[in-house]
Specification:
Length: 287
């Protein structure tokens, strides 16, 4: 099970991996999140990254803190499926998995320049007449000729086979530290029957992610609207945050500190709840 997978290699182009302690620490937290507080498995915490479980910033529109985390969870789900149905032992699947793991070890695809826009893809495909520039068969993948530049002169159309062969040739052997990390990834996230993260669960995640995303949006929206801020016409979380912060800072302008403004002599009743306190503040500021 997964034999041979750990002996993969790293791509020569390592955009994120600068060899620093910081990178190694970050990579560990992306690949092996601490789920010790969730013994039942399928861990998911609202408003936290579905992969590394770190808090998400308000303005983040999704369920992951980074492309790296998103791609890692996707790879884990793919590996769990392949492990269960035995595909993981097929040589071609093994090779494809090795490549995928090598990229995850080095950082996100986008950091490695592997995310091209559909327009760029279409242009290169068109320019190369739809044919693999290596063997002349119909091509399907865009290859970075050398390095990670997205300039058209650095891109070419290749077929699946030629692309994979070229990628494998550009790999260097994985250092022991990476092999150990991949072994731990298998033990902790791929092999267990019950996935440690909800985002690792092939079937459940497919069912849940879009509802969770909607819920996360609605939660923030409700929170901001409960401050009396009207978000009509604003679509993205980022827009809501900008509006919220603008309104709050406007309200704070020229406001005395609450401790001065709300003395007993103002006739403010301190016994009433927090919400009323907030409302009182807001009323004062709009006067
Ligand atoms: Zn994350
Ligand atoms: Zn080819």
């Amino acid at each position: 099970m997964g034999d041979g997978i750990t002996v993969v290699a790293s791509p020569k182009v390592k955009a994120d991996d600068d060899g620093s302690e910081e990178f190694h620490r970050l990579r560990r937290s992306v690949l092996l999140p601490d789920t010790s507080a969730y013994p039942l498995g399928r861990a998911y915490i609202a408003d936290h990254c579905a992969n590394c479980l770190n808090p998400l910033p308000d303005g983040n529109e999704g369920l992951y803190c980074s492309d790296w985390c998103k791609e890692t969870a996707g790879t884990v789900r793919y590996l769990r499926g392949a492990n269960r149905d035995g595909r993981i032992d097929q040589p071609d699947v093994k090779e494809a998995i090795g490549i995928r793991l090598a990229f995850i070890m080095a950082g996100s695809y986008s950091a490695l320049g592997r995310n091209l826009s559909p327009t760029t893809r279409a242009k290169v495909k068109d320019r190369d007449g739809g044919m693999c520039q290596s063997c002349g068969k119909p091509g399907s993948e865009i290859d970075h000729i050398s390095g990670s530049s997205d300039e058209p002169t650095n891109l070419q159309l290749l077929c699946n086979e030629c692309h994979r062969a070229k990628t494998m040739k550009n790999m260097i052997p994985a250092p022991d530290e990476e092999k150990a990390l991949i072994a731990a990834l298998f033990i902790e996230r791929i092999v267990p029957d019950v996935p440690v993260l909800l985002a690792d669960d092939e079937a459940e995640w497919q069912r849940a992610w879009s509802a969770l995303k909607k819920e996360r949006r609605q939660r923030l929206r409700d929170e901001i609207e409960s401050m009396g801020i009207n978000l009509a016409g604003l679509k993205t979380r980022a827009e809501w945050i900008v509006k919220r912060d603008a309104v709050l800072s406007e309200r704070a302008q020229g406001q005395p500190a609450p401790s001065e403004s709300l003395s007993a002599s103002d006739g403010f009743n301190w016994d009433i709840g927090k919400d009323t306190f907030l409302e009182h503040l807001l009323n004062r500021s709009t006067r």
